Write the structure tokens for this entry.
Amino acid sequence: MWQVARRLSDPDYLKNQADAQSAWARRNPDYWKAYRESHEDYVERNRDQQRVRNARRNRHAMATMTVADLPQGLYELRPIQNGVVA
């Protein structure tokens, strides 16, 4: 699609598109709530897909935001050799 290429190559076009989308969302704050209320099949499909994503997720391989025991400083996250995220 030409719009994708244009957004990748033209930062002004990308910003204008983002601004237009934000303005539309401000003018239509209840759009997604109304959409979900009128499309029960969409809601159920989304819930099913989220259950699959949750089951697939390896929670032990994910970094957390709990840093209370770490001293202040700059840290770098690196992938472990077997592909698990540190």
